[in-house]
Amino acid sequence: MKILRSGLGAYKRITGMAIAGLLALNIAPSRAATDSPKPALDAAMVAAHAAVKGDGLLEALLTELDRSKAQLKMDQVQAPYYVEYRVNEVEDFNAEAAFGALRENQHIHVRVLRVVVRIGDYKQDSYFGRGQGETNILPLDNDPISLRHQIWLATDDAYKAAGQALAEKQAAMKQFSADPNPVDDFAKAPPMIAVEPTVSLKVDEAGWKKTLEDVTSLYRQYPDVQSVTASTRFSAINEYLVNSEGTVTRCGKATYSVQLNSSAQASDGMRLGRSPAFMVARAEELPTRDALMGEAKKMLDTVVALRQAPIVEEEYRGPVLFAPDAADDIVASLIGQNVLGQKPQPGKPNRTTGAFATSYKARVLPNFLTVVDDPTLKDFQGKSLVGSYAVDSEGVKAQAVNTIEHGMLANYLIGRVPIRDFSTSNGHGRAAPGSFPGPSLGVLLVKSSEAQSAEELKKKVMQMVTDQGKPYGYRVETLGPGNSPRLLYRVYAKDGHEELVRGAVFSELDIRAIRNDLIAVGNDPLVSNRAGGAPTTIISPSLLFGELEVKRADTSKDKLPDYPAPPLKK
User: Fold this and answer.
1) What is the rounded CA–CA span in Å between residue 450 and residue 541?
2) Partners of 368 in the beta sheet?
3) Per mean pLDDT, which range of 14-28, 101-115, 315-329, 366-380 is the poorest?
4) How many Å apart are CA 193 and CA 536, to the nearest integer?
5) Is the four-CA dihedral 348, 351, 357, 361 of positive or negative sign?
6) Which of 74, 283, 339, 372 is the most buried (most CB within 10 A)?
7) DSSP-assigned letters across all residues of 182-249
8) Closest by Cα among 95, 74, 93 to 213
9) Does the pLDDT of residue 556 top 70, yes or no?
10) In this model, does residue 354 exceed pLDDT 70?
11) Which residues touch 518 (CB under 8 Å, ≥6 apart)?
12) Rounded (5°) CA angle 115-117-121
């Protein structure tokens, strides 16, 4: 496939991976460079070879895996106990328009190989520092010699790095008289064979580029708006995995996202912005051209309204209602990131890291809430979920996990790196192309035994502020970076009418608040599909906090442009 920019450079920009320089590897000769008679295969590997017939890439990976298991041994270095090859074949279409003109258009097709060689055993091994694997770029065609040569070179480098890493790790562990967190380095997993159909992009690229231009042409009708952009990123990723335990998986996933952005400044210099986004797993669910034009007009009208909106008072403390769009962000940052079971650094006694590190079997939410991560869910209320998957990036079958049960932290999400009390993977080890796997969300769903309607929650806010002698409470429609409110409304106690305001920050929106101040939730769950190293989905209803502090943001550094914008007409 044609690459409109440098494939490696563009792929680095899109994924944010630090893979520059991978083609300039320090290559040393290996005794694995020549073929030898094929070793006898165990039953798992026989089954693996049978499963990949007709897939040239998988066949090349398994052939080199056989050779590595049989021949990978240096003097005074242990033979590997585990070898893994993971390939992500990525096809990306990315386009962006600004002010009615296309300014970016690229199509990327690249194969990223990651090789992991582990020396030692499951209890203590070389997965440390440089021993965490080698990454390389593979040829796009399925020429077996070209593929196997690149795989061999990366394997040789990974083995040498693993030998050095194990020695460094053993030396580092000697500083501890006893391990305060005695868990294995790697969890055993049964062989998994799951060879699914591959996926590819199926979109009208020319039509989408024209739509982006049309959407951003609306800036001519909004002279007070400083910037208007629209972008698409459509991706198809096929992940291939083989390991020396006999696992063979091939899984494909396509994601389609459209992002709108606009910004302006109020007369006092305060910067204001809106950035509605749409992400789905099926292209037919994306907004039509007309629908996207409507969303863009709504966005621009809101930015103009924000310029005229009053600034929040210096300080408010009282009820705050978060609409589902904003609630999804709260759940992602305050719950999602803290239920991941990350093994602490050597010498650290904690079970895991993060705000819930010492909260196992303790209350972290109100008792009317349960949170489950279920990557086997493909759809919710008719909408596709990009966080769904059948097998994770470590070859473990996906499974639903109740992370929080009736407010109590019951489980962490983990991959094949165990933590105390969690010795095996629960199918949540995921990775971006070229990176090493780690615990990750799939589809995180907030459930309540006491859900209320949006109308009931608003009435509750009005009653609470009336009882407190306040003229109004607050409702948050959307959040921005750092969970700062982008669309914030005063809800007046007298008649329920709403007033848009600007310039607020939350100073107490933290895990203590969701544990103690979250008093009610809605029956209006919203799907929020999210990009990242591995795509995830958050599904949360409205959240009502009984008491939060709303403060005025410091905007003293915001300055208006020194001279006017150019004319909007030629």
Assistant:
1) 12
2) none
3) 14-28
4) 24
5) negative
6) 339
7) ---SS------EEEPPP------HHHHHHHHHHHHGGGGG-TT--EEEEEEEEEEEEEEEEETTS-EE
8) 95
9) no
10) yes
11) 365, 366, 369, 543, 544, 545, 546
12) 150
Tokens of 412: 């962490």
Of 33-37, 236-240, 245-249, 266-270, the poorest mean pLDDT is in: 33-37
Q: Dig out the tokens for 502 from the structure.
A: 């600007």
Identify which of 375, 358, 379 has the alpha carbon closest to the alpha carbon of residue 426.
375
* CA 44/CA 563 separation, integer angstroms: 71
Residue 12 has pLDDT above 50, yes or no: no
Q: Which two tokens stand for residue 57?
A: 């890439």
Here the tokens at position 377 are 């869910």
Place of tokens 């279920």: 374
The DSSP secondary structure of 489-510, one letter per residue, reads: EEEETTT--EEEEB-EEESS-S
Q: Which residues contact 519 (CB under 8 A, 6 or more apart)?
A: 366, 544, 545, 546
Tokens of 68: 């590595």
Give the whole-angstrom CA distance, residue 87 versus residue 70.
22
CA atoms of 207 and 201, how far apart (whole Å):
14
| Cα radius of gyration rounded to whole Å, the chain | 26
Q: Are 270 and 558 in contact (CB under 8 A)?
A: yes
Please say whether the beta carbons of 479 and 326 come within 8 A.
yes
**CA-closest candidate to residue 21, choices 8, 7, 10, 4:** 8
What pTM was estimated for this model as a whole? Answer: 0.90
> Could you give the dihedral angle defined by the CA atoms of residues 277, 281, 282 and 283, in that order, rounded to the nearest 10 degrees?
40
Q: What is the pLDDT of residue 214?
A: 97
Is residue 366's pLDDT more than 70?
A: yes
Q: Which two tokens stand for residue 66?
A: 């056989």
Cα 79-138-73 angle, rounded to 5 deg:
10
pLDDT digits (tens, 9 = 90+) for 172-196: 888 887 766 689 999 999 999 999 9
SS3 32: helix
